[in-house]
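Meet my pick.
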Amino acid sequence: MEIPEELRRAVDDAVNRSLSSELDARGLLLAPAALEAATADAVRAGADLLRRAVEHCYPDGRAGAYRIEFDDDRAAERIGLGLAFGSVTAHLLAPRRVGDERAATTALSCAVFNLAVGLVDGVCDGAPPLGLELLRTVRSVDLTGAATEPWPDGRLRAALPEPLRTDPTVVFTARLVEAFVRLLHLGHPAEPGAALRERVGARLAEALAAEHLSVRRPAGATTRDQLVGCSRGTSVLPFQIIEHLATGLPTLPPPTAGTLLGEAMWRIDDLVDLCQDAGDGALNAVLLAAADGPWPADPRDGAATLERVLDSGAVPALAAEAAARLEAGLTAAAAGGAESRARPLFLSFVHRYAGIAPRGR
């Protein structure tokens, strides 16, 4: 449904104001020069990661022989930034390892993983029937098992049915998933990496199940608590997977830095997407908590639910929760020996995703 423009502005202003205030109070807003520098670093890193990712997506070609064409420079930059965010998160969550080639492979695997998650999510949001078919196909080729025993070349692409195999975004996403499986085994090879790969495989199964439920949401088959857990899982599980990969540890004592950062981004994403999700009837834990009955019982409920969110005081409360989780996650990462330059880079992505101006603006 179409959300009235006045209501949309009121919600967006409340979200931006609350997030800016809470992040600023905890010293989590970057100054203008620092934000500009971190963003430029992320763009440069993304361009380099894109080149390296393409080489792994097309392993049958000579190095540098493949070149992906995008609709425009901004599309290429967005893809690069999707890779950069995964890599930055890996560096934030991993102890410093200077000159470690395996660490570079792991950071690339996290970059490819993050981009693949983003593209799958984009397909599911933009065309839910196509997204459900893609998720079904990924599950049918046993991605969980591939974490233990690598796939033969082209395994996922060969399983794509029509119309998936003719969709360029889906085919590129399939290549990314295949590249991730190869990089997982390169970064954590053979028997020494078996327990880690098995844990990652189990987390991947959880993430696929959460994404499938978030798109399908069978009427009457899920409770509100299950849907909230599903909403959380689609955001938090990718961070937990990156944390396992970055640290090389199959088990970590909770609450981990990755979990805390994932919960922060879950709350931020739900707040920033309130109007879009209300109009689409998409799964959103904030709307679900405010809905009068199942969400969405009727597409026309979107505007009324948004008004309840505004009146309830949920926006400032959840912005405070998000900022507290973000601060705790960054503190835990620093205690674990994270790279110091990873913090401003990560915060630059928070600015970007939430549309928040730098400190003092």
Notes: The chain has a mean pLDDT of 90. The first helix runs from residue 5 to 25. Residues 167 and 306 are 35 Å apart (CA to CA).
